[in-house]
Amino acid sequence: MRRTTEVLVVGGGSTGCGIARDLATRGVDVTLVEKGNLTHGTTGRMHGLLHSGGRYAVSDRASARECIEENDVLRDIAAHCVEETGGLFVKRPEDEESYFEEKLAGCRACDIPAEVLSGAEAREREPYLATDIEKAIAVPDAAIDPFRLCVANAADAADHGARVATHAEVTDVLVEAGEVVGVEVRHGDGPRKATTEVGATERITADHVVNATGAWAGQLGAMAGVDIAVRPSKGVMTVMNTRQVDTVVNRCRPKGDADIVVPHETACILGTTDEEVDDPEDYPEERWEVDLLVEQLAELLPILREARTLRSFWGVRPLYEPPGTGTEDPTDITRDFFLLDHADRDGLPGMTSIVGGKLTTYRLMAEDITDHVCEKLGVSASCTTADKSLPGSDDIRDLHDRMDEFGLRSPVSRRSAQRLGSRADEVLDVDGPNPVVCECEAVTRAEVRDAIDGAGRDLNAVRLRTRAAMGTCQGGFCCHRMAAELESEFDASEARASLDELYQERWKGQRHACWGEQLSQAMLNHMLHATTMNRDGDPARLDDDIDFGAFDGGDAWP
Amino acid sequence: MTGHDDSDPEDEEYHPAPGVPRLGRDEQEAVYGPDYTVDPPEDGIDPVSRAAATGAADSEPDVAPDGGTSATGGDLDPDDYDAVDVFDTGALDLRDGSDSCYKCTSCDTSCPVAEVDDSFPGPKFQGPEQWRLKRKEDADIDPSITDCSNCMRCDSACPSSVPLSQMHNEARGEYVDEQMEKLSTEYVRNRILSNYRFFAAIASKTPRLANFVTGLSVTQWAGEKLLGITGEREFPDFAEETFREWWRKRGGARVENPEKRVAYFHGCYANYNTPEVGKAMVRVYESFGYEVMVPPQQCSGTPMFANGMLDDARRHAETNVEELARAIGEGADVIASCTSCSLSLRQEYPELFDLHGIEDVAEHTFEALEYLRIHEDLRGELADAELGGESFAYHAPCHARNQGLARQAIETFADVDGVAVEDVGDSCSGISGTYGWKAEKYETSMTIGAEMFEHMEAAAGEVGMTECPTCAMQMEHGTGYEVKHPLQVLEAAVVD
Amino acid sequence: MAIASDVLVVGGGLAGATAALAAAREGADVRLVSHKQSTLSQASGLVDVLGYVPHTRAEADDDPTATPTAGRTGIRDRPDPEGPLVDPFAAVDRLPEGHPYRLVGVDALRAGLELFDDAVDGYRGGHTDRNALVPTFGGTVKPTARYPESVAAGLASDARPMLVVGFRSLTDFDARQVAARLEATGVPFPVAGVEVAFPAAFRDDAAVTRVARALDRDEAIDGTPARRALAAAVEPHLDAVEGGAARVGFPAFLGDDAAPTVRAELADHLGADVFEIPMGPPSLPGLRLEDRLYAALEDAGVRYETGNPVVGRELADGTDGGDGASGRVEALLVDRTGTEVPYAAEAVVLATGGLVGKGIHSDREGVREPVLGCHVPHPAERYEWYVDDALGDQPYARFGVDTDDRLRPLDADGAVQFPNVRVAGATLGGADVAREKSASGVSLATGLVAGREAAAEVSR
User: Fold this and answer.
1) Using an 8 Å Cβ cutoff, are A54 and A107 in contact?
2) How far does C346 lie from chain A, in Å, by closest CA?
């Protein structure tokens, strides 16, 4: 029977996108479905650390080795997604010397370049480090932008013939004659699709289904009738307004909460906690977690105590351990990944799940499962994903020199180029005015429109691609500007709905930052949107009609 | 905050691991770092580190510790130090200045340059936005930084106290150091204009000759063609006798009073060009019973900040701080008659330099009229004064605004018989020190000043009044009015 | 003491200026000090008194004491507010009891408006108690009591066909979206939106003051005087709206000092009335209002200075009294780069603004008023300062100082903290000015009462 596609990948996170890319570049016809935007799940809610492996050097050397290898690969193929910040493991007086030694030895054993720095040398590199930090280990941690990474993987997959469908939620896994034959999806509101209507359902049949849904693996498995015991565990991340550090700063002590600060774009991200939750979509976001991050990390960087936070968000780790392992503490669960062939495991051919793992090793995970699936399909092509650059990461060396051509101020063109990589030319070369839409993050109209082309009217997706609304004002000044850019393709009420969604989404994270300057910002935003724009009293949305004639029509001038 | 030898900035001992960037936060060398050796702190710990260690981390982690004793003998208050200026070998990192910004754009609406020149992005972009977008390896400031006149109006507009002019000064210094070609006409010209004091000192040795030469149209022509100094303006005249010469000849102070001492910071202009202002200051203060000191001093640095010449400014600051701190130690407060000098000593000094005693100097510096308003019954003294029926058109210098002095002259003379002082509005005069002297900025400076000229002409008075020497130049240039300093009017009112 | 006055007003916004004027009119010697330029430059320039009685938490299911969750996104059916109100004065009684309007009374509000109408030129709307509905750049309409002349031709109750003009280099709104949204609100006039290319001669990021100046001085844009150039860019589009545009709405940048002339000339060229659509920060109408208020202060003989912050107080015993102190305030300490200079006064008006104007500060520990140390009631639990619905009944929007009906600040026990101090404007608690659309009215009403009260203190 002819199937719709050869391989259906469910899940648009780093793993899913990586799998789609690998399969597509090997010539397999692949369809990827994702219920939200790309990186809707864990990938979109992490601190952006490209591991050197240092964090696993003591507890999980296998993971550590994988990390450093993939770290090298990603710097190569995803250059425009990676900022080479370097990393430090810093030791405070109360941290154990023996652990420091173990960490160092572990790094060396895993071939992770490591160098010991004195406290003063560490402070030379990062002046805001606390004085009583005694010493540090320097490792090649880096910062990675997960959104850009996934979008690039998906773009490469699409370039090789893959179909990438976002806002397509799997509502059922189709099982016929004891075999998985495909899925049923429901198309939500996403990019304008010529062929698909909002709310329409679609049957997609495939030779093989890959379950790359991370924290939702169990839910998808249940639709197929198999049990996958994912143990979702939440962790908070707090976004600072500026970069207090330009290097990844880890605390050199056994794994625990609040021990890392990662520079990310214009900000830095504090992380994290580790609390098991029942539902990966709904779990408490608690104040003690935010306060813990600030208090504990202020021991490494005292300035954090007074510095401005923009928001906090939570991610849910899709931890998995084989049944019977019985680990109690989520921090002890392995971060290793597992490939679950349901034919072997559950007597249900046609589907493989991939669970566990981390962003840094996504490509390796994808290679593993792609090898596995290709074998099943009889495809002999081998993996090339480690050797080929992702779109946007091609030759960007002379990019900087050409940026003057676009008539933008240097910092604006620099940031745009950093985001767009080798696509900068193509995107920024526009006719007509190209004003800046998001001033905090230096995002021009051209970049926003390019993102709208890719993501449709979902302004949150546009935000993820461009960083618009992710800066100091958290969208207060640019949410409506982004909505104004929808005009050419969407009607005004759709644009208004998108604006409301974006504004509310921005509030969701800011409510955790409601003090100090951010509270003043929130009030200013509130005044702008409620008073000056009157969005809360928008007559188009209130039930009662206005009797315009009852108001002052200006007819009797004094 | 250095681990290796402070006295050797080229320390080769330091080898980073692969993949780990080499230098500290900003890759550039110190912008204003001293070109002499810095004495390493005695205990070998840098001030920032000491700060965090002394438990200041509990309350104010960003403050430096006790830096020693102040000139007046008390302990220097750690709370007075601002974290960002204790880096003594690295360029300042002002990214966290953008924490205060909530994007209201008030600064842009107060910017006189942005109002007339659309190629200038305005203080919001130039300051918090540009800084926040910087990463460690980024080393390009937008060239539009040179369009900023350093009028500092943005500071007084910002409701959140974002350190705007500090960010601009620092970015400008970085730009000049890293991106401006040192052999270019622009750089040389800016250096000359910034170091006015140097040339004025030479010229004042033979004032008549100097005036003759600068008055020649060929000089003005050459200035413009060769250096880019506008030929549209007339160079100021040098006085026959400098203020300091006058002071020496008169035998110094004529009032002795260790309880009421002031140290006069006259500034370059009052010394070389308008000593009558300095004389007025001395006479007025002596009539109030003050013992006036005139310590050795150099340029306050205002023109250097505006041109990004932070090394030059620092050199002069070292002398100024040393001398003024000594005077403060002898019980004096520092008085400046030029509002740019007083602003520089009070704000830019502690923001940009970390010299010992600089906070003390900032705290003890006042503008001339301001000090009398606070400490004397100026209103009472003036109540019986009667002047000759003069009408003045008063312009508040932008730099006076940040010190809260914009309405001071109006208020002081409001109740005095025989004098009317009218405020010509809150626009910028446009010249902004060296800015209006640059050939390529001349038109802009006149466009900015147009509103002030119009208001002056509409005002009843035919004589201008202002505290700032370059504003005075501009006022005269645009309207032909003679311009006086409020001290001169005060002198006429209270000195017999 | 060297620097002294009868009444010292701290804060130079609408409330502070109103208090200063009110006190001056009672014959007091008034000094106004402000640290920075006021937040009027951020506000739209409209004078709103009361536009809505918004829903409160009791009606919605927004519980600030509930722990936030990832799944609770805050988007839900929000109960409609009552409004837009035609008659703001009649609705005051339906506001919560601690609201400043309830404290000072409707008469004070009327008196405040009267003072405004008298002191400030160029505003309309005083001929009626009814609110006017003004188009916003968000594409809605909003109720306001007074509006500048530049806005007058754009009122939504006026039935004439309207053309909304946007500019390609201006990102704040898309004129076509605004027109479509206005239509959706049911306005009684045909409306269309158009984007034009003027001002092409300016860089995309030119400041709004740049464009205003070009129009003020009618600068040549590629050889054509700016006003004519702007009209020429718009003129071809007048027929985009059904019936031909009788009035044309522009973003609010139509000049500063010469704004009336600019509008008149544009109207002349276009053969249609011209009006401005007020916008958020930066706001030219807000700046113009600020200029007019300060001209009024000068005329009234109020001495004002901006640039230095008030950093402390001196009570009757010459000390600041420590945390939680109360008593008569004898002087306020103004910081002059490290030296604290006392400014003595018989009465003080505190009008330093709220969270936006920086009269109310917060940190992770709490919320406070930094100048005098007045008590600011707020939940001890920080996570009770907000609700999930971004545009809902936010507790933080009501933070401020509580006072008695004479605007004297109350301490944590409800006793008068500083008997010779009056609090006005956004520094006061109890009003959700953002959703009520009442910010200016609160400033005027309480500014007036504070000023009169302060002047009365002096004669005591």
Assistant:
1) yes
2) 32
Q: Which has the closest alpha carbon to B339: B350, B328, B348?
A: B348
Cβ atoms within 10 Å, residue B19: 20
C48 touches chain A (CB under 8 A): yes
Shared-domain flag, residues C425 and C293? yes
Measured between beta carbons, which residues in chain C are less than 8 angstroms from residue A534?
51, 136, 138, 140-142, 437
**C-alpha–C-alpha distance, residues C186 and A543, integer Å:** 12
| C282 located within any domain | no
Q: Which of the other chains make 3 or more beta carbon contacts under 8 angstroms with chain C?
A: A, B
| Chain centroid, CA A196 distance in Å | 27
Q: Which of A364, A460, A464 is nearest to A48 (CA)?
A: A464
**B311 CA: distance to closest CA in chain C (Å):** 24
B243-375: in CATH 3.30.70: no
Domain housing C96: 4-118+287-459
Test C186 with A545 for CB contact under 8 angstroms: yes
Which class would CATH give B384-494?
alpha beta
> What Rg value do the Cα atoms of chain A yield, rounded?
24
| Pair B426, B396: CB distance under 8 Å | yes
Rounded to a whole number of angstroms, the distance from the CA of A282 to the nearest CA of chain C is 4
User: Among residues 373-432 of chain A, which lie with CB inside 8 Å of chain C?
Assistant: 409, 432
B/e letters for C443-454, b = 16+ CB within 10 Å, e = fewer, are bbbbbbbbbbbb
Q: Which residues of B touch A72 (CB under 8 A)?
A: none
Neighboring chain A residues of C70 at a CB cutoff of 8 Å: 234, 281-283, 285, 314
Residues of B in contact with C34 (CB under 8 A): none
Where exactly are the structural domains of chain B? 205-238, 243-375, 384-494
CB contact under 8 A, C140 and A539: yes
A-chain CB neighbours of B161 within 8 Å are none
Distance CA(B158)–CA(C356), nearest Å, equals 12
**Could you give the count of Cα atoms lying within 13 Å of B384 in the half-sphere of its Cβ?**
6
For the record, the structure tokens of C401 come out as 């100082």
Q: Is C124 touching A (CB cutoff 8 A)?
A: yes
Considering the domain boundaries, does residue C367 fall inside one?
yes
Q: Rounded to an integer, what distance in angstroms lies between the CA atom of residue B98 and that of residue A308?
A: 9
How are beta strands A443-444 and A135-139 bridged, if at all? unpaired
- Both tokens assigned to C312: 């402390």
- C307, C334, C357 ranked by CB distance to B159: nearest: C357
Residue by residue, pLDDT tens for chain B (496 residues) are 334 333 333 444 333 333 223 222 222 222 232 322 233 344 444 443 333 333 333 333 333 333 344 444 444 443 333 334 333 334 677 888 899 999 999 999 999 999 999 889 999 999 999 989 987 767 678 888 999 999 999 999 999 999 999 999 888 888 898 888 888 889 999 998 898 888 888 888 899 989 988 888 888 888 888 889 998 998 889 999 999 999 999 999 999 999 999 999 999 999 999 999 999 999 999 999 999 999 999 999 999 999 998 999 999 999 999 999 999 999 999 999 999 999 999 999 998 898 999 999 999 999 999 999 999 989 888 988 888 888 999 999 999 988 999 999 999 998 888 899 999 999 999 999 999 999 999 999 999 999 999 999 999 989 999 999 999 999 999 999 999 999 999 999 998 7
Q: List, in sequence order, every beta strand (DSSP E) within B236-385.
A: 261-265, 291-293, 332-336, 365-367
Q: Give chain C's contact residues with B (Cβ, < 8 Å).
A: 2-3, 33, 35-39, 41-42, 202-203, 205-210, 213, 257, 281-282, 287, 298, 303-308, 334, 336-339, 341, 353, 356-358
Neighbours of chain B (3+ CB pairs under 8 A): A, C
